[in-house]
Amino acid sequence: MGVSVDFNDANIAWAEKLGLTYPLLSDMRRQVSKSYDVLYDDPEMASDPKKVPIYLRTKRAWFVIDKEGVIQFVKITTPRDFQPPNDDILEVLKKS
């Protein structure tokens, strides 16, 4: 599944545009993002014109979590990295 801080209708539109076959969950309250430490929430960002666009947005992140709820893999990139190669994630999933 995917998690986004966008509202549900935006997630639906995004999933349709990309042809995703898995659910995108809305984290409007940013609780999941904070729990996984991928939220840009430093208040000083709000006063920096270069950082305002990402304040309260999330880092691009992938987590592979096994059936027991244990995180087996983490990949976090900057927001400018649109879609880095997923070979390492796919390799972890093959082993699961």
From TrEMBL:
Q: Which Pfam families match?
A: AhpC-TSA
Gene Ontology MF annotations:
antioxidant activity; oxidoreductase activity
- Identify the residues that the record assigns to the Alkyl hydroperoxide reductase subunit C/ Thiol specific antioxidant domain, covering every copy: 2-73
This one is known as Alkyl hydroperoxide reductase subunit C/ Thiol specific antioxidant domain-containing protein
